[in-house]
Amino acid sequence: MAKISVLIEGYVNLKEKNEIFEHNCTVVLIETKGKKIIFDPGLDRSALLKSLEKHELKVEDITHVFLSHNHIDHCLLMGIFPKAKVCTSVHFYNSNGYGKMIPEVLGDEVEIVHTPGHLQNHYSLLVNNEEKQKVLIAGDLWWWAINEEQKVDYKSLINKDDYFGKDLNQTKKIREKIIKKVDVVIPGHGKSFKINHKEK
Fold first, then answer.
1. Which of 95, 77, 73 is nearest to 85 (CA)?
2. Are 146 and 194 in contact (CB under 8 A)?
3. How many domains does the chain have?
4. Among 18, 24, 51, 56, which one has the highest count of C-beta atoms within 10 angstroms of its own C-beta?
5. In the structure, what pLDDT confidence band is assigned to residue 166 with cuts at 50, 70 and 90?
6. What range does the domain containing 109 cover?
7. What would the DSSP string read from start to end of the chain?
8. What InterPro entries is this protein classified in (predicted)?
9. Can you give the CATH number for the domain in which 191 is found?
């Protein structure tokens, strides 16, 4: 089973409903079978390095970087890991060999899931954790602003607005499908939460 650690809890501070003032994404560390995977390294270098240090890790220890999508608050720091292979849109590339595909997976505890809507090329990870839970590391399939109430009942989760998404209807369909498969969700911005399957 994989060990999952939230290195940075993401946040979005909005001036207006659709105008960002400041933000950073949730950064997640997945440790499984010798691999150390960073999901969305974000854009706050200082915070990321401090969090890695707390986990007794250096950037050289990271073996893989997985990008949910190419918005700058999720992917800006992807190049600071000198030994990591970068995975975006389900393709792996050597950080020192641009464009060279690597026929490798993240391990049998980690499933790559296409979750379009926020962007067409948006991906999430479904991970079996040490507590034998199915954890969805969601990226921006779900996200909340700082002053926004984080409602996690079924109906609210499926219908949650996405001010910066490309196709909300598609997002809702993906949410409705995937929510039945998971126990815990780590959103792109906001607090992690458990799914109450008794509500169905």
1. 95
2. no
3. 1
4. 24
5. confident
6. 3-199
7. -BEEEEEE--EEEEEETTEEEEEE--EEEEEETTEEEEE---S-HHHHHHHHHHTT--GGG--EEEES---HHHHGGGGG-TTPEEEETTEEEETTEEEEE----S-TTEEEEE--SSSTT-EEEEEEBTTS-EEEEEEEEEE--TTS----SHHHHHH---TT-S-HHHHHHHHHHHGGG-SEEEEEES--EE--GGG-
8. MBLAC1 (IPR039344), Metallo-B-lactamas (IPR001279), RibonucZ/Hydroxyglut_hydro (IPR036866)
9. 3.60.15.10
